[in-house]
Specification:
Length: 391
Amino acid sequence: MSKSKSPECLDLENLLGITEELNHIKDIDSLLDHILHNARQFCKAEAGSIFLREKDHLIFSYVQNDMLVKREKNYNKRIYDKFTIPINRESIAGYVADTGKALKIDDVYIINDTVPYSFNSSFDEMSSYRTKSILTIPLITSRDNITGVIQIINPQLGDDVTIFTDLHSQYVTFLANNASVAIERAQMTREIILRMIRMAELRDPKETGAHVNRVGAYSIEIYQRIAQKRGDSPETIRHTKDHLRIAAMLHDVGKVAISDSILKKPARLDDDEFTIMQTHCASGADLFDGNVSELDLLSARIALTHHEKFDGSGYPNALEGGQIPLPGRIVALADVYDALISKRVYKEEWPDEEVLKYITDQSGIHFDPEVVEAFFDVHEVLKAVGKRYPD
Ligand code: C2E
Ligand code: SIN
Ligand code: SIN
Ligand code: FE
Ligand code: FE
């Protein structure tokens, strides 16, 4: 939790500041992280999650739980869990999404039987967590569209779990109303990026956006680990992750300029073909040229440097070591890891042990040793990413 104080009343300046902040976040997962963090901070709540709506289901989209973070080494795996809840009145989240009404429950294990919903204790059982008080608020846009629900769990008073107050409800409702618009916009950004990527890479119908979703997620997990080890501030880490995921997803957009005969060749490329293939780095960087936003700069930098190698034997500029920007060094490993564990038109997937051995062997050669170390630290989390975005 960051240091900022939790106000005793809804102070307008603070609320406007938060709305302003939300509107600057571009990546959908960063946005959910931010909203949840903020709501939990105000209520001093131990846990929470956000579900987003897709047709007649809620998709579990983001989770935070301070107690489990302390207890579980690979806690971040949970962020990539994937399950859905039908929108109907049987579950708490389903009820709120169906009716658009908020629910404040003091103890989910004592819900009286005059209401249609009940608490699903399977998550508690799985993780030996005890959910008690839950505040569930719909995320509603200005057009009365329910985008999802936010659920905040177990507010603390000292070391004890207490119940939610009306002030808590008011605050989270305010946040939910303002967040919904930002969520819709961030979802649109994600969709536009995936469309760009489809144009660039997915001319082959066997390919999906899964590779780029994975590379984006691997990159931020590795980055976060490095930044934590270096002692960077939580604010810096959050801010960087927001841009890094999107920019990493775009690492190969320059492939839009590569002809099908090379891009989809079901065999090894010859030297001339590989020389043409290498132009995808500069073509990608050119797409972001002339723009000065942080996201554009980072996207250009990653597109240009993701095939540089730590020992200076990479392309297009044969940079070495610290000459290669850190994001380029991170995406280099994330991209190759995913390429090796996946089947490609020109190669089979490699067995896990061989991939890990290769990465170890290439530490200091192709890859930055600091990045390799962070990769192994978060390897279990990266495997969860792979399950969330299968081919
Ligand atoms: P990609 O398939 O996404 O692969 C990204 C990087 O992963 C490659 O960069 C390379 O560093 C690594 N990689 C992928 N497969 C293997 C492998 O079997 N062995 C080893 N040691 N490393 C591997 P690279 O080489 O610069 O290639 C860039 C892109 O060029 C590839 O992206 C792919 O789209 C294309 N490409 C490279 N070689 C071939 C090929 O022989 N045939 C075809 N059709 N495309 C190729
Ligand atoms: C993919 O999206 O998996 C295909 C592009 C690539 O080989 O990197
Ligand atoms: C950067 O290039 O973004 C930072 C370089 C580093 O921290 O090693
Ligand atoms: Fe590439
Ligand atoms: Fe790639």
